[in-house]
Design a protein that fits this description.
The structure is a single chain. The chain is built from four helices and eleven strands; from the N terminus they run βαββββαββββαββα. By secondary structure, the chain is of the alpha+beta class. It has a domain at 6-96 and 150-158. The protein has a three-stranded antiparallel beta sheet with strand order 5-7-6, with helices on one face. Strand 8 (108-111) and strand 9 form a beta hairpin. It starts with 5 loop residues before the first strand and ends in a 14-residue tail after the last helix.
């Protein structure tokens, strides 16, 4: 399995900015592109170029090829926010579908002392809330992962796009 390049903000402060701003709130009109850099080596290991350089499960980064293949689907469920990168044309994806689909009683959740969610070990969702939505976040967790439907994953894989690895977190 290839290890793919990473995408990091140039300023350390922008890591927190990503957590705060890529939260499902529409940002297109107020977005200020942040400077980012592609990381091509990690611990002495060369990283392969990717259609989706990795930033985190809460904030996906895409090159133009992803937009060519999945643009309409991505735009249906979110925004493509430009990034400033000297090496490549990149966008950060902000899913604007935030749905209260997590079944907290059936999920395995670790909580902070204030009751907020620290970590979700096992996800359970309410299928009737998700319906046919292909991309979403949940409101229950700060820096919610981006959840993708099987239909999205199948289109990604069939197109030969690179950089994302998918983990099924809940059977449909």
């Amino acid at each position: 399995m290839d290890a793919f390049e990473l995408c990091h903000p140039v300023s350390r402060d922008d890591f927190e900015r990503v957590i705060v701003e890529i939260d499902g709130t529409p940002r297109q009109s107020s977005w200020r592109p942040m400077p980012v850099a592609l990381i091509h080596e990690d611990r002495g290991r060369r990283l392969s170029a990717a259609d989706s350089p990795w930033h985190g499960e809460h904030a996906l980064v895409f090159r133009p090829r992803v937009i060519d293949v999945l643009g309409p689907l991505l735009r249906q469920y979110g925004e493509l926010l430009p990034l400033l990168c000297q090496e490549a044309e990149l966008v950060m994806y902000n899913p604007t579908q935030v749905i209260d689909a997590l079944d907290e009683d059936q999920s395995s959740i670790w909580r902070f002392s204030d009751g907020s969610i620290m970590w979700i070990q096992r996800y359970a969702f309410r299928a009737e809330v998700i319906g046919d939505i292909d991309v979403f976040k949940i409101p229950n967790k700060r820096a919610s992962p981006t959840f993708l439907s099987e239909r999205f994953v199948d289109r990604w894989k069939a197109s030969g796009l690179t950089g994302l690895e998918f983990k099924q977190v809940w059977p449909q």
